[in-house]
Amino acid sequence: MLPRPHRLRHEKDFARLSVKGRPMYGPFCILRAWKSGSVPSKIGFVASGKIFKSAVSRNRARRRLREAFRPLLETVPDGYDMTFVAKPEVLKADFIEIRATLVHLIEKLPVELARPWKRLPKPPRSRKGEIGYAKQLGVPRPPPKPAQSKAEGPP
After folding, report:
1. Which residues contact 139 (CB under 8 A, 6 or more apart)?
2. What is the distance in angstroms between the CA of the first residue and the CA of the last residue of the chain?
3. How far apart are CA 33 and CA 20, in angstroms?
4. pTM for this one?
């Protein structure tokens, strides 16, 4: 485990990163980062149940990423929130290759976050998700969708 001050622990922080985080792609993981101003930087590791079907493989993927990242903790600049989303290749990869990928992603982090977005990320599909997305981006709530009554149904 990472030291407690460096851990991303709350569900809302992971959700904020999924909306506001800038993705950077590597062969073994996806880094989603956002300049939050937190000192020290907060880091989380995610292994999706859609990709890793068994709990054993999810936990193993997170452990491998976490242990490859641990020596690099001092090289991470302050002021960022980050999540590393594991890809299936992380289970078969050599540990040195995983660490080299993490080093590369951390090095390009400040440069990538300084660049403007090419396009904003797509909002979630559900109405509740749209409202939460609007809150995260700081824009007004979307207007309510007109309700179709049963009497006015399609002909």
Report:
1. none
2. 61
3. 8
4. 0.75
CA distances from 135 to 28, 38, 63, 83, 142 (A): 32, 20, 33, 21, 10
CATH of the domain spanning 4-137? 3.30.230.10
3-state SS record for the chain: CCCHHHECCCHHHHHHHHHHCEEEECCCEEEEEEECCCCCCEEEEECCCCCCCCHHHHHHHHHHHHHHHHHHHHHCCCCEEEEEEECHHHHCCCHHHHHHHHHHHHHHHHHHHHCCCCCCCCCCCCHHHHHHHHHHHCCCCCCCCCCCCCCCCCC
pLDDT band, residue 132 (cuts 50/70/90): low
**Residue 133: predicted pLDDT:** 61
Q: How do residues 51-110 score in pLDDT, each as one tens digit?
A: 999 999 999 999 999 999 999 988 888 888 999 999 999 999 999 999 999 999 999 988
Task: Name residue 22's beta-bridge partners.
Answer: 33
What is the spatial distance between Cα 134 and Cα 141, in angstroms, rounded to a whole number? 6
How far, in Å, CA of 120 to CA of 9, rounded? 26
